[in-house]
Design goal:
The chain has seven helices and 13 strands. The chain is of the alpha+beta class. The strands form three sheets. A seven-stranded mixed sheet has the order 7-6-13-5-12-9-10. The chain is elongated, with a radius of gyration of 21 Å.
């Protein structure tokens, strides 16, 4: 079923320099708009137009990069490459299914909560008038949708966290956060994939490698995946880490 533009009621295409454009498919983060982002991304992945270099999905948009010289030579010289690519994207969207046909993967992420692997767990609990055990239960008894990958290589922006454990970011970011750290920042939760500065409240850590540069694809997670966090003990964490998985 093609996208009903009366239903979506929003489409804006904007230039991004001389070699890209941004396709805005909505104005707010929602599952419906996420499905449109996935539908366009899926099409561009399987049927890239001549001259397309890459596409980058985000919360409500897809950025498309292209080679203007290739576009200009292949599609005619009656208009600028941007105008031609914009027309191509509009035509693609008019014939897209309303929702992505991509099958969501469910990825289980083992997490050792609290202690040296989640030193802010008690703060998150106290801030929300909960016990640490309740925070762990709320965080792990949920399914999270990967809306996009960004900020750092492979870093998943997850939707679906309960407001009961929402906690403001730290006033002063840490200079270094270990890979695999699971944090809460406001109403979001996510996994730090590489060593990086960051201001989220750290509640646990996974022994899994979420980003592996030598793998193809390098990111364990992708937009559209469903993430489930599974609590594990310190012993299980260390055994997992020792195994080098």
């Amino acid at each position: 079923m093609p996208i009903n533009h009366q239903q979506t009621n929003y489409l804006k295409i904007l230039p991004l320099g001389d070699t890209g454009l941004v396709v805005e498919l909505g104005q707010k983060i929602s599952l419906e708009i996420h499905q449109r982002v996935l539908a366009l991304s899926s099409y561009l992945h399987s049927c890239p137009f001549i001259g397309m270099i890459e596409y980058v999905p985000a919360f409500t948009s897809v950025t498309v990069f292209y080679d203007p010289w290739t576009v200009y030579n292949h599609y005619g010289k009656e208009a600028s490459p941007y105008t031609m690519v914009k027309a191509l994207i509009k035509e693609i969207i008019s014939n897209l299914p309303a929702y992505s046909t991509q099958t969501s993967r469910t990825v289980e992420i083992p997490v050792c909560y609290g202690g040296k692997y989640g030193e802010d767990l008690e703060y998150v609990a106290a801030y929300n008038n909960l016990t640490p055990e309740e925070v762990i239960s709320i965080h792990s008894n949920n399914q999270y949708l990967v809306y996009m990958i960004g900020f750092a290589p492979g870093f998943p922006y997850l939707g679906g966290m309960s407001e009961r454990i929402a906690t403001p970011r730290k006033p002063s970011p840490r200079l270094s956060i270990p890979p695999g750290s699971v944090g809460i920042g406001g109403e979001q939760t996510g996994i730090y994939t590489i060593e990086t500065p960051g201001g989220w409240q750290l509640i646990g850590r996974t022994p899994l490698s979420i980003f592996c540069p030598k793998e193809n694809p390098p990111s364990l997670l992708r937009a559209g995946d469903i993430v489930i966090f599974k609590p594990i003990s310190i012993q299980e964490y260390e055994e997992w880490e020792t195994a080098g998985i």
